Amino acid sequence: MVSITNLHKTFNKNTVLSGVNLEIKGGGIFAILGPNGSGKTTLIKTILGMVIPNKGKITVLDKDIKHDSVYRHQIDYLPQIANFPNNLKVKELIKMIKDLRGDTKTDIELINRFKLEPFLDKKLGNLSGGTKQKVNIVLTFMFESPLIILDEPTTGLDPISLIQLKELIQTEKDKGKTILITSHIMSFVEEVSDEIVFLLDGQVYFKGTISKLKNKTNELDFERAIASILTENHA
Amino acid sequence: MLKILKYSFFDLMRSRWSYVYFAFYLLLGIILLFLNNDLSKAVITLMNVIIVLVPLIGTIFGVMYYYNSKEFTELLLAQPLKRASIFIGQYLGVALSLSMSLIFGLGIPFIFYGLLQSTAIWDFSLLLTSGTFLTFIFTALAFNIALSQDNKIKGFGYAILLWLFFAIIYDGFFLMTLILFEDYPLDKLSLVGTMLNPIDLSRTLILLKLDISALLGYTGAIFKKFFGTNFGLIISSLMMTIWVVFPVIRIIIKSRKKDF
């Protein structure tokens, strides 16, 4: 599905990724974890072609993504901060993204799921952060792409919407899709993800299931397992 | 690209500032035309306002739009779209909506004034053409600044400096050079000097057409002597086009290499 070989990225002398090798096979939920500034978002953005790597090769569905934009038809991306043109109405934004990517019917079901009907005629500038995030989720999940990338999807969501989101992620997984998630909420990660990819100092430190990580660190609790990696390496 | 252009354009057309800008020109046009009985004087006053104000609004609006729509641009970048079409689409959206405010704001009072029957229609169209050119040039320069500078405050600073440079500082330096080297033949230098500043260029262009020798000034007079009125018009329009094309090319190149 996604294959990354020897990926390097430096922002003004600040090395973020130094030789990432990662192979993600189709199907399942993969959580990308790591301390602040470990390059999670940068890694995601290189897959999307938003950040251009200094070195390395990325293939998505066996196609090299360099100088290409068509492959992004195969990816649904949920950005970290949702900020849309303030003068547009929710309805118009959904229509616009459909116009750019192709028509779909799934949006109606998603709007129902997140109870967004009352907001459809409101301007995006007048929405609260959580509601914007729900709109963001609708925009991401309304297409049937084989790869879904979610950057901090839980930001600003109330408990009901969070449950809805988890259900949604589960149904997408059951369809055989591949889902990449970054999050700092460990309970969320533990609940939804099949495998985790732990980034540290610009490289993949650990890749495998949560139970494998617990064994490796001799911790029973997932959150403590993560913390123990960090204290071992930064003590 | 056309889709992005369409959405940027409608987004801006709905913003309050487009209307403020439009209303300003409407008011200016009405006051100058109906409270003043000399049409050519009105055109000159309009010219003086346009060549200073249009670049200022173009740069400020350009950087403001870019920085304000940054997160949205990121959303677009994740869609199957080419980078160049996103940025050129946005640029054209801003430049077109600003030009529309200018053209309709000044055009409506002129039509009511009975311009269509008057001989001043060519002077007036030239005025609007150079205003549109200036909008496209300075919006493109603003997008260049914003693409190269991630820091919003610095970006705004550079944009204001750019405007200040072309509108005021440049003329000061130019004049000082002419005074310092007055013993030498300066025809070529002053010609080149005018060509390198789009604001000076459009001023010369309009004054050439209006044929007011008293206002042409030194460079204008040389321009006229050197090229004649018609050839001068062609040369300066060509230069204005170059002034649009180069910054636009740089937007494309810059956007291709940038990280978001």
Task: Give structural notes.
The complex is a heterodimer of chains A (235) and B (260). With 235 residues, chain A is an alpha/beta fold. Chain A has eight helices and ten strands. Chain A has helices spanning 40-47, 90-101, 106-113, 129-141, 159-174, 186-192, 210-217, 222-234; strands at 2-11, 14-24, 28-33, 55-60, 63-64, 75-78, 147-151, 178-182, 195-200, 203-208. In chain A, strands 6-7-8-3-9-10 form a six-stranded mixed beta sheet, with helices on both faces. Chain A has a four-stranded antiparallel beta sheet with strand order 2-1-4-5, covered by helices on one side. The termini of chain A are far apart. The relative contact order of chain A is 0.17. Chain B has helices spanning 2-13, 16-34, 39-68, 70-77, 83-113, 121-148, 152-180, 187-195, 198-210, 213-257. The radius of gyration of chain B is 19 Å and the shape is globular. The chains are: A alpha/beta (235), B mainly alpha (260). The interface between A and B is medium-sized, with 28 and 23 residues.
Oligomeric state as shown = heterodimer
The helix/strand order of chain B is HHHHHHHHHH
Number of individual domains of chain A: 1
CATH class category name of chain A: Alpha Beta
What's the structural domain tally of chain B? Answer: 1
The strand count of chain B comes to 0
Q: Give a short account of the largest sheet of chain B.
A: none
CATH superfamily of chain A: P-loop containing nucleotide triphosphate hydrolases
> Nearest-angstrom radius of gyration of chain B?
19 Å
Secondary structure tally: strands of chain A: 10
Q: What coarse outline of chain B follows from CA principal-axis ratios?
A: globular
- Strand content of the residues of chain A, in percent? 25-35%
Average pLDDT metric of chain A: 88
